[in-house]
């Protein structure tokens, strides 16, 4: 199964990239999974002007990232909460692709912040976005409050009590993705 994790913050020192790195390492332990991390902060600032439904429409420097999106069997969207919503850079990136990129694919929602709510309001808006993209949101989300105290910059878990939350999210996400792929 090909899984693309999208770290949706435009900030190069994004705190939510920590959980994206942690999930990538955790999922990569399963030899049957091909895990790719697409970091939106590495994408040149683009304004949505066209849908990239064929590679010829994609800027040359983004061909590899386009392939990551097209080859995904499932996605994990990782975003900080900005003013009660997900990162605008995430929405801008996702809007460059036709809906069949996401059609009937499981999409896991992961949010994080340095505050106590962990991006809870962003998860609600991400669910609406995923349905509009014709994806299937995984009902078990991973919400990471106090992220700066839970993970290092490289994605290593500091708060071992949080490992159960991560494991449950991964278990539910993989189960749902597997079910959708077989139907």
Tell me what you see in this structure.
The chain has helices at residues 17-28, 63-71, 88-94, 120-132, 147-150, 163-182, and strands at 2-7, 34-39, 74-80, 106-112, 136-137, 142-144. The model has no long low-confidence stretch (mean pLDDT 91). 36% of the residues lie in helices and 17% in strands. It contains six helices and six strands. It is of the alpha/beta class and 183 residues long. It has a single domain (2-182), classed as Rossmann fold. The radius of gyration is 15 Å and the shape is globular.
Give a quick account of the main beta sheet: strands, pairing sense, barrel closure.
6 strands, parallel
State the secondary-structure class.
alpha/beta
Write down the secondary-structure element order. Answer: EHEHEHEHEEHH
Oligomer: single chain
Mean pLDDT: 91
When the domains are counted, the total is 1
Fraction of residues in β-strands: 15-25%
Give the name of the CATH architecture.
3-Layer(aba) Sandwich
CATH superfamily placement: Flavodoxin domain
Termini gap = 14 Å
The outline comes out as globular
CATH class division: Alpha Beta
CATH fold category name: Rossmann fold
Work out the number of β strands: 6
Helix content: 25-40%
- What integer value in Å does the Rg equal? 15 Å
Total helical elements: 6
């Amino acid at each position: 199964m090909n899984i693309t994790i999208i770290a949706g913050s435009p900030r190069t020192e994004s705190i939510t990239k920590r959980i994206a790195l942690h999930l990538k390492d955790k999922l990569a332990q399963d030899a049957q999974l091909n895990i790719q991390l697409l970091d939106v902060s590495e994408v040149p600032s683009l304004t949505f002007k066209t849908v990239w439904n064929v590679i010829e429409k994609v800027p040359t420097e983004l061909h590899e990232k386009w392939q990551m999106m097209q080859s995904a069997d499932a996605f994990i969207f990782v975003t900080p909460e900005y003013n009660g919503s997900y990162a605008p850079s995430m929405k801008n990136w996702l809007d460059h692709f036709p809906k069949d990129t996401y059609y009937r694919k499981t999409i896991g929602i992961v949010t994080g912040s340095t505050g106590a709510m962990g991006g809870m309001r962003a998860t609600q808006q991400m669910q609406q976005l995923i349905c509009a993209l014709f994806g299937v949101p995984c009902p078990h989300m991973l919400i990471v409050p106090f992220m700066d105290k839970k993970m290092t910059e490289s994605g290593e878990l500091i708060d071992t009590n949080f490992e159960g939350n991560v494991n449950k999210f991964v278990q539910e996400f993989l189960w749902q993705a597997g079910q959708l792929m077989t139907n």
